[in-house]
Amino acid sequence: MAFRFALLGAGRIGKVHARAITSDPRAKLVAVADAIADAAQAIAAQVGCAVRSIEEIETSTDVDAVIICTPTNTHADLIERFAKAGKAIFCEKPIDLDVTRVKACLKVVESVSGKLMVGFNRRFDPHFGAVRAAIDDGRIGEVEMVTITSRDPGPPPQEYIKVSGGIFRDMTIHDFDMARFLLGEEIDSVMASAAVLVDPAIGTAGDYDSASVILTTASGRQCVISNSRRASYGYDQRIEVHGSKGAVSAENQRPVSIEIANADGYTRPPLHDFFMTRYTSAYAAEISAFIDAVEKGTEPHPGGKDGLAALVLAEAALKSVREGRAVKVSEIAG
Amino acid sequence: MAFRFALLGAGRIGKVHARAITSDPRAKLVAVADAIADAAQAIAAQVGCAVRSIEEIETSTDVDAVIICTPTNTHADLIERFAKAGKAIFCEKPIDLDVTRVKACLKVVESVSGKLMVGFNRRFDPHFGAVRAAIDDGRIGEVEMVTITSRDPGPPPQEYIKVSGGIFRDMTIHDFDMARFLLGEEIDSVMASAAVLVDPAIGTAGDYDSASVILTTASGRQCVISNSRRASYGYDQRIEVHGSKGAVSAENQRPVSIEIANADGYTRPPLHDFFMTRYTSAYAAEISAFIDAVEKGTEPHPGGKDGLAALVLAEAALKSVREGRAVKVSEIAG
Amino acid sequence: MAFRFALLGAGRIGKVHARAITSDPRAKLVAVADAIADAAQAIAAQVGCAVRSIEEIETSTDVDAVIICTPTNTHADLIERFAKAGKAIFCEKPIDLDVTRVKACLKVVESVSGKLMVGFNRRFDPHFGAVRAAIDDGRIGEVEMVTITSRDPGPPPQEYIKVSGGIFRDMTIHDFDMARFLLGEEIDSVMASAAVLVDPAIGTAGDYDSASVILTTASGRQCVISNSRRASYGYDQRIEVHGSKGAVSAENQRPVSIEIANADGYTRPPLHDFFMTRYTSAYAAEISAFIDAVEKGTEPHPGGKDGLAALVLAEAALKSVREGRAVKVSEIAG
Amino acid sequence: MAFRFALLGAGRIGKVHARAITSDPRAKLVAVADAIADAAQAIAAQVGCAVRSIEEIETSTDVDAVIICTPTNTHADLIERFAKAGKAIFCEKPIDLDVTRVKACLKVVESVSGKLMVGFNRRFDPHFGAVRAAIDDGRIGEVEMVTITSRDPGPPPQEYIKVSGGIFRDMTIHDFDMARFLLGEEIDSVMASAAVLVDPAIGTAGDYDSASVILTTASGRQCVISNSRRASYGYDQRIEVHGSKGAVSAENQRPVSIEIANADGYTRPPLHDFFMTRYTSAYAAEISAFIDAVEKGTEPHPGGKDGLAALVLAEAALKSVREGRAVKVSEIAG
After folding, report:
1. How far is the C-alpha of A153 from the C-alpha of C131, rounded, in Å?
2. Would you call D197 helix, strand, or coil by DSSP?
3. In C, which residues are within 8 Å of B268 by CB distance?
4. A271: closest CA of chain D, how far (Å)
5. pLDDT value, residue B114
6. Which of D240, D36, D76 is nearest to D149 (CA)?
7. Which domains can be identified in chain D, with CATH numbers?
8. Considering only Cβ atoms within 10 Å of each terminal Cβ, which end of chain C, N or C, has fewer?
9. What are phi and psi of B195, to 5 degrees?
10. Residue A277, CA distances (Å) to A253, A271, B306, D47, D293 in order
């Protein structure tokens, strides 16, 4: 019998998840909700599912799980509502922009033994997954240094910048999760530097567009993150891990990998446009992992505490930029 | 309204096409037929379609097109039957192992204005397609030399070798089609050398497992093909085209592209296992192109004459090996 | 007429420079001095030059320039002596481990209008030079983010660690110079994290073996440096620069670039062993640039103030690790 | 004591060898001869050696060996003269354009127990040498298929074309030697196709500029060669060897290996200009191997019979093009 989803939010990332659902033969998208009727209708028409209100979905008996892709400021409320409604929940990151609100939300989920998975899609990328597998298999010995390069092809619209919570909570948060996924030890302190180099309007909105971060664990393992909101050559997503016996890295991916040689040199095409094409298989694997966990009754990973941990690192990074010092995770996490 | 397929033959390549059909939202697999009931049943259960006999499919009014994946010796008969039945036809290569039989078959198709596409999937690979596009865009000037490296991960079973028509008709035939796709000019003569280096049993069956071919066009353009039935490092599929202004190449693909560095050096994983995973997107694009052509009423490409042309080259190559000389295509094609 | 060198110090780096001198047809090594007579004799025999004492070289009329490769604690004194003696001076980094001593030394050089070049060989590597040229040619627009990965194949002997001044002054100092070479703007502040992950004995000696640094310029440009004293896969030396219009990178170099493919994957050999082979052509180009500057009467680059600037960054990094905060360059440089 | 060379011929390849000699500390260039006095003088001035006539060199007691870089039609005569004069001989390929003349020459050398090495520089390239070492170490099992891609950056001057003996004797001859170096078995038959695609003037001169060759050994091992007289992207020199357990390849080399990424893609610089820079280290290693052999009294490799064998293959290839058939090596070699 099919695993039945309802999709809350029919925007860009909602479409990505709708497509991901169609790739798992166990999954079925039953309903979609969106404040913008046309957006919901578009997905419904394409997939062949119903348009319902959030209230209707809350009480739908033919829905096993919801995928929350609505604006960030609604995430925590929806998680609480649907946890109480007994639905399994897959929520896009972040749970909320405020650490205290996230903690309160997770308590509610826990109190009703809710199932919550948070959308850190990169863990499910086959290449990054293979990096982690190489570490787990002892191929590089003990992890010592992680380097994450993560650059968007271009900055988001100004309206989005304003509600995004800033580059650390919106963009670097994926890298913070990756660092936790790869370091093999919890992070102890955060140092960060950030600036406005891409677009002054981002600075006007109180945010940064270029950032560098050093994460350090208690034993001294280090992770360096380099972020930019703009890369002319495409969606730059690289990871490397240096260990006591060797190193493992995942290079960039491109949709077409030909090479043209002429008097100007040897040229390969640009990278993927953005996450929708770069992480197609990651989104599919992510949904499958969610279904696996719910069907087996195990805790979905990454879960609420992973969402919280990444948000804490984002807050620590912001504090580090503002105060020009290393910020202990314990200062934020309490 | 959906474009409705019936699948004839539920073996390895039949499964590949069944999966390809599910990737085009316009396409629907209505029925599957196979002499082995269990094989047909397995696909029917997975896709949710009917099991029917070939006779039933021939008269089915809910079938727009058939995909012929049965043994090679049935291809020509089935093409004729279904062309007469008014179904659009997608047939796996080769149409037949005998040039005369292929010609007769194509005459029947023509007489009833049938639509026939032949399964040269590699033309639809995004990387090889981009190679062709680079040529068409004038990026490398006039095509002069094509190099095709094509090696299977391992030899097929002995029973298959016996009915395959030999390495040139079974394996190199894809490379012959690629050469025609890329050279931009018809081939005039063929030189080939072949040997048994991989498995003596292949020689016992009267076939070769390692072959080198030079194709030359009337104006002197050359294509070199290197084939082996065994490559320990995976399914080796590379193309490069050298032209008057530059060159373009498509490198090998691998499912996971991490790199592990240690005292032994830098290691990337092996290539794809075989065509089922290497050409997943090519098979999907191939079916979409078939639907496009049939829906628009245009001639599907590659069509019957492409199937014939590749077979003629295979026969010329075999003759070249046996007689130790350059064989003119006109000697075979008549 | 030949440009005549005397070499002070016949150890590992002295040999590298002796070889570099032989590669410029203008240069001639006239004399070598070393406290260990055998070491001096070995180079003298190989090159066919004289063994002299430092005092003798100071008064030699057949010596145009000296190359100082003696232990670090003698550098500043020797620079002063030979500047006063009217010899052009090429000195291995660092000038001294103490910022105040360096400043005093540079004043002496200036007072006698001495010519001083400091041995930051990497600026002369053809690949890194091409990175800088690409920036200068506007190929990547404005520089925004620099990433430097620099890992030694293995830690130096304990005795060396003790007198080296620590990882930042001994090893990262090259990366600090590279950052200045590539950022196009002076560095304003330094954040660093460091730990002992490779060898506890290094910690016992009061040093670190693994370090991450963020350098930030006044306008917000950022450079991230990742250092380790041990890399099982060879001498890891990579640079990438991300700018407003694109990025440029220089990959690792290996002595032999074959690739072996088998069932385990595709393997290329390890990197160069260490700087002696990795930077052979850089050392040669460095000496040529020194001769060029002296013969033309221009200021050699990188000069004393570059040596000072890199040392200041090293000191700032160390202070940042110890105090857990961003350290302004002005705090150190005065 | 130094190993003393005289250089016969001060043209392009003569300069290459003059430079190679300076890279071996055992070697000394004593004299240079050339019909064009200025050419000889230029090298003499640069290296600091004497200009002598060929006759003078023949009787010079301070010359241990000659390097023959004169026009091809003088090679055989000079080899005979200097073999009789008791000098060790390094001769640029080919020994002569005529197989009979080569055989006669080798007999003379043998009759006086002369030492003769033939200039197949590519055997000494570190990358190609590592390919051979990987084979010898059993890394790829039994050799089955060799692929050689060899393209010059541009065609030679018309005057050179006329005296070169044609593309097979002048250019492919290096690839024939490489094939013999790598196949591990003598070649039994040759098939070739050739055309004029680059420059009609080459055709007017009776030569070809684009060629494809299949070499087959008695046991069926195959080597495919692809040649062009023009490659817009530089000097294209690649080798790959496919064996029973794996494959090994040597990729192209470039003087600078940076990569620039922007909206047009990822671009690396063109390859080396030509052999003078591509094979710098190969020429140096070649001279060292020659000195090694002469000093140890062993037979230099590759020697006269290797020069003959490659020439025989060239003649067989030409015959194959003209007669449209596989030509047995025994037809030419007698």
Report:
1. 22
2. coil
3. 265-267
4. 8
5. 97
6. D240
7. 3-114 (3.40.50.720), 123-281+310-333 (3.30.360.10)
8. N
9. -155, 170
10. 10, 10, 33, 60, 60
Encode burial over C222-261: b for 16+ CB neighbours within 10 A, e otherwise.
bbbbbbbbbbbbbbbbbbbbbbeebbbbbebbbbbbbbbb
Distance separating alpha carbons of residues C121 and C280, to the nearest angstrom: 10
C-alpha–C-alpha distance, residues D271 and D262, integer Å:
20
D233–A270 CB contact, under 8 Å = no
Report how far apart, in Å, the C-alpha atoms of B55 and of each of A49, B37, D91, D194 are. Answer: 36, 15, 76, 53
Cα–Cα distance between C205 and C170 in angstroms, integer?
Answer: 14
Identify whether the C-beta of residue B66 lies closer than 8 Å to the C-beta of residue B86: no
- How many CB atoms lie under 10 A from the CB of residue C71? 12
* CA C48 – CA C146 distance, rounded (Å): 44
Number of CB atoms found within 10 A of residue D15's CB: 19
Question: For residue A88, what are the CA distances in angstroms to A8, A68, A76, A84?
Answer: 13, 11, 14, 10
Backbone phi, then psi, for B68, in 5-degree steps?
-95, 110
| Cα–Cα dist C33/C63, whole Å | 13
Strands (E), C10-142: 27-33, 50-51, 65-68, 88-92, 116-119
Residue reference for tokens 């969402």 = A307
Three-state secondary-structure class, residue B6: strand
Report yes or no: D20 and D5 within 8 Å, Cβ to Cβ: no
Q: Give contacts of A224 with chain C, Cβ < 8 Å.
A: 212, 214, 224, 226
Answer whether D7's CB lies under 8 Å from D53's CB: no
D197/B219 touch (CB, cutoff 8 Å), yes or no: yes
Task: For the beta carbon of residue B297, count every other beta carbon within 10 angstroms.
Answer: 7
Q: Find out whether C84 and C61 touch, Cβ atoms under 8 Å.
A: no
Q: What is the pLDDT of residues D182-205, one digit of tens each?
A: 999 999 999 999 999 999 999 999
pLDDT at C1: 67
Q: Mean pLDDT over residues A273-292, rounded?
A: 96
Tell me the pLDDT tens digit for each residue of D293-329. 999 999 999 999 999 999 999 999 999 999 999 999 9
Cβ–Cβ under 8 Å, residues C183 and C217: yes
Q: Which of C233, C262, C263 sits opposite B266 (nearest CB)?
A: C233
H or E stretch covering A328: strand A327-328
Of B301, B283, B304, B281, the residue nearest B292 (C-alpha): B301
Distance CA B34, CA B6 (A): 11
For chain A, helix, strand, coil in percent to 5 are 45, 25, 30
CB-CB neighbors (< 8 A) of A222 in chain C: 193, 195, 210-212, 226
The Cα–Cα gap between C84 and C89 comes to 11
Q: How many angstroms away from the CA of D231 is the closest CA of chain A?
A: 8
pLDDT classification of C99: cutoffs 50, 70, 90 = very high
Token digits of residue A245 = 């016996």
Give the model confidence (pLDDT) of A79-102 as tens digits.
Answer: 999 999 999 999 999 999 999 999
Q: How far apart are CA C243 and CA B165, in angstroms?
A: 57
One-character DSSP codes across A266-279 = EEEPP--SSHHHHT
D15 — phi, psi (to 5°)?
A: -65, -40
Closest CA to A128 of A230, A281, A19: A281
Tokens 């490397």 identify what position?
A240
Mean pLDDT of D92-103: 96
Residues of D in contact with B149 (CB under 8 A): 147
Yes or no: say if A228 and D231 are a contact pair by the CB < 8 Å rule.
no
SS3 A243: strand
